[in-house]
Write a structure and sequence with these properties.
It is built from one helix and eight strands. With 140 residues, the protein is mainly beta. Strands 1, 2, 3, 4, 5, 6, 7 and 8 form an eight-stranded mixed sheet that branches. Strand 4 and strand 5 form a beta hairpin.
Length: 140
């Protein structure tokens, strides 16, 4: 019985940590993310981070390059305490016909162990390539 419970615990930890970048070795972190990911209309792409013991503050800068159509994307910074329920902190909206567009977010309070940047393609016919850098300040 103990072996079964131990196996279930290992599987649960593996399932929770899968699909996110674990950040636990620095006070101020700069992580590149979304490197040349593409997004189209009505598509959502998530990049999640786990910060141990928790992320105190976060910010990001995004560069979107138009492949075709019109660049119209919302980049949403979210936090979670359990990796199941997400709370929106702030949004950067990029809407332009320019070939390359940049947007940034000021530093925001997070105070949660999970942080995620969600890219949501909205409106218009489009295909965009984007790159962003995330700054995470780990709690001491």
């Amino acid at each position: 019985m103990k072996k079964i419970i131990g196996l279930i615990a290992i599987l649960l930890v593996t399932a929770i940590s899968y699909g996110q970048t674990v950040v636990n070795n620095s006070a101020n972190l700069v992580k590149g993310a979304g490197k040349n990911d593409t997004i189209t209309k009505d598509q959502t792409v998530n990049t999640a981070f786990y910060v141990s013991p928790y992320c105190e503050k976060a910010s990001f800068q995004v560069t979107a390059a138009k492949i075709s159509g019109y660049t119209k994307v919302n980049y949403i910074l979210e936090k979670s305490y359990d990796y199941a329920t997400w709370y929106q902190i702030d949004t950067v909206k990029i809407s332009s016909s320019a070939a390359v567009v940049k947007g940034k977010m000021d530093i925001k309070d997070v105070n949660a162990p999970y942080v995620r940047v969600r890219a949501v393609g909205i409106d218009s016919t489009q295909k965009n390539r984007y790159t962003y850098n995330v700054i995470l300040k780990k709690a001491q």
